[in-house]
């Protein structure tokens, strides 16, 4: 495969993490960068030797040399920028979540159908080494029949940028919805969610969202499985935890309670004291082209003098960044849908949006739209 995809990165805060990955990927050309603040644009452009620079997003989209955009802008801009890019004939990778409304999720799915362009939500958890480990166990049959899935994402968002304070917990739920849906490629059918506790009044009034914790059950379509996910963002004492657990008939996988400790495998039919066993999760760099394998272990933002909150608190996102970039580029080269594709991304994102609606209604069951058949 000698084809190269011209990639433009939009947003150079967290987005800068991906620049050297694309620069070293054998099928990518790190062609352009876009940032509203020209001083930041030039600083990053000079640092990485990128000549094509835009401070205006529309000008970037008008460039016929751009094949694909990777959007890393603030959450409120995701849907608008994604739709503009698709309609300008560009493929899109976008950091999570896909959008902030179910209607915008639907519009993005429709736009991919209308334009024939690919969309991928860059959900880190489904390419983290822990998820890849569990996926390998499942595919080898070691888990047996999967019986239940559970995930959590707890984080203290105090001090984050202006669009985060008071955010409803489930409006940023893809890090826990993604793995429970993604392991067996399931489609969420309906959701029920409860809010619990309250955040401070000054935070609650920003989005009219009072809950400290939101916990949801997800029922999957054409499956006997359901999953449980819970989220907190403010006023809850908890170390950062982005956990994913799966319970099978033969083996189960449980996330450690404390960051840095090893996960636990439970194996059925053993003497009780032998059922649990701590395991070391292997790295999966061998899934990647040799040129970018080293990025599973380090990147731009795990340097002490260049720390980004999402990378520091997220434990390096499980080595997922080069896997995300590789999946996106590979899908374009092979002319196939990336994982997650547009309808899957819409489904995962809308679970969180509608879970919050359910919590405001005291746990009401809310159906998800059928994004797959749009």
UniProtKB/TrEMBL annotation:
Pfam families per record: GFO_IDH_MocA
Gfo/Idh/MocA-like oxidoreductase N-terminal domain mapped to chain residues: 5-121
Name this protein carries in UniProt: Gfo/Idh/MocA family oxidoreductase
Record lineage: Bacteria, Pseudomonadati, Bacteroidota, Cytophagia, Cytophagales
InterPro entries xref list: Gfo/Idh/MocA-like_OxRdtase_N, Gfo/Idh/MocA_Oxidoreductase, NAD(P)-bd_dom_sf
């Amino acid at each position: 495969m000698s084809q190269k995809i011209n990639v433009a990165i939009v947003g150079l805060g967290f987005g800068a993490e991906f620049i050297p990955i694309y620069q070293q990927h054998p099928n990518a050309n790190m062609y352009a960068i876009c940032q509203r603040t020209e001083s930041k644009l030039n600083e990053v452009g000079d640092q990485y030797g990128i000549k094509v620079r835009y401070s205006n997003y529309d000008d970037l989209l008008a460039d016929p040399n751009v094949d694909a955009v990777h959007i890393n802008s603030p959450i409120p801009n995701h849907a608008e920028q994604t739709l503009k890019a698709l309609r300008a004939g560009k493929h899109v990778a976008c950091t999570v979540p896909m959008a902030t409304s179910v209607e915008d999720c639907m519009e993005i799915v429709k736009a991919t159908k209308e334009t024939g362009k690919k969309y991928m939500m860059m959900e880190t958890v489904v390419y983290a080494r822990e998820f890849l480990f569990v996926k390998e166990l499942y595919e080898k049959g070691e888990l047996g029949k999967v019986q239940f899935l559970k995930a959590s994402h707890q984080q203290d968002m105090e001090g984050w940028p202006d669009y985060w304070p008071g955010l409803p917990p489930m409006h940023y739920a893809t890090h826990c919805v993604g793995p429970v849906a993604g392991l067996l490629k399931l489609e969420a059918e309906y959701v029920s969610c409860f809010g619990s506790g309250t955040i401070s009044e000054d935070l609650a009034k920003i989005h009219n969202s009072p809950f400290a914790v939101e916990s949801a059950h997800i029922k999957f379509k054409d499956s006997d499985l359901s999953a449980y996910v819970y989220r907190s963002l403010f006023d809850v004492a908890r170390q950062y935890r982005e956990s994913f657990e799966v319970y099978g008939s033969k083996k189960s996988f449980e996330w450690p309670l404390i960051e840095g400790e090893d996960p636990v495998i439970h194996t059925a039919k053993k003497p009780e004291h032998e059922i649990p066993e701590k395991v070391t999760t292997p790295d999966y760099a061998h899934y990647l082209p040799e040129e970018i394998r080293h990025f599973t272990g380090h990147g731009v933002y795990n340097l002490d003098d260049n720390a980004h909150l999402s990378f520091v608190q997220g434990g390096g996102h499980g080595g997922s960044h080069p896997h995300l970039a590789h999946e996106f580029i590979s899908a374009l080269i092979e002319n196939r849908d990336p994982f997650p594709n547009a309808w899957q991304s819409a489904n995962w994102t809308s679970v969180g949006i509608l879970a919050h609606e359910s919590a405001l209604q005291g746990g009401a069951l809310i159906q998800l739209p059928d994004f797959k058949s749009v």
